[in-house]
Design brief:
Blueprint (H helix, E strand, L loop, with lengths): L2 E9 L2 H17 L3 E5 L16 E6 L2 H8 L5 H10 E9 L2
């Protein structure tokens, strides 16, 4: 059953964030990740709980694969680039 990493990201350093995007994608793909949305146009309809800014959705084969990507040693230095150059809310949801 699929699982999705969903991230809402406010980029604070666009130039450095481009490096993050370039490095993160092949690592996600190594863990079975398939980008379904990556910062495209938003049509925000309701904002009672949160107002998204830049949304990324990555589909994985299952929760374990998504967790393995996020927690991998390979992704750790790349995640650091994201932390230094963006504010982010990130979660994994079961595609149930």
């Amino acid at each position: 059953m699929s699982a999705f990493i969903i991230a809402d990201t406010k980029v604070t350093n666009p130039e450095a964030y481009e490096e993050y995007k370039k490095l993160a994608k092949p690592i996600a793909e190594k863990f079975g990740g398939n980008y379904r949305a990556r910062g495209g146009e938003l049509d925000i309809l309701e904002t009672d709980l949160w107002t998204p800014t830049r949304v990324v959705i990555i589909e994985f084969p299952d929760m374990d694969s998504a967790r393995a990507f996020v927690n991998s040693e390979e992704y750790a230095p790349v995640k650091k680039i994201r932390h230094e150059n963006a504010e982010c809310t990130l979660f994994i949801v079961d595609g149930g």
